[in-house]
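Subject: sequence -> structure tokens, single chain

Hey, anyone have a minute? Need the predicted structure for the following. Not urgent.
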Amino acid sequence: MRFDELKRRAVYQAVSDADEVDELTPYVDQYINEGYDRMLSIAEKTEPPLLMDEDEPALPEWMHPAIADYATFLLLRNGSPQKQSRGIQFRAAYEETVARFFRDGGLVGKKSCFDGVYQ
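Reply:
Had a minute. Here:
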């Protein structure tokens, strides 16, 4: 997903209106990049932050929605108790993606054979 798609997704998940992106832009940009930075640190990669709408995260495509989920959680965390409880669901979805990343062997995948084992 491109940066602009991530922003629209996060805003839509938070306020049910993707047209609010312009109003929330300074915050959603920062929150998308925070989620992206967290994912990069988990993957042990260093990449520049997303700045232009055409920028894409340097992570597998299946991880991109989790970046928007993390931004949605951050957008909702300071709201009413109802918004906070909605935000927890997006945080859980983000954490499930992190767990899947580790479960599937990270960026290199699972090992199917062992090297250096005496048979």
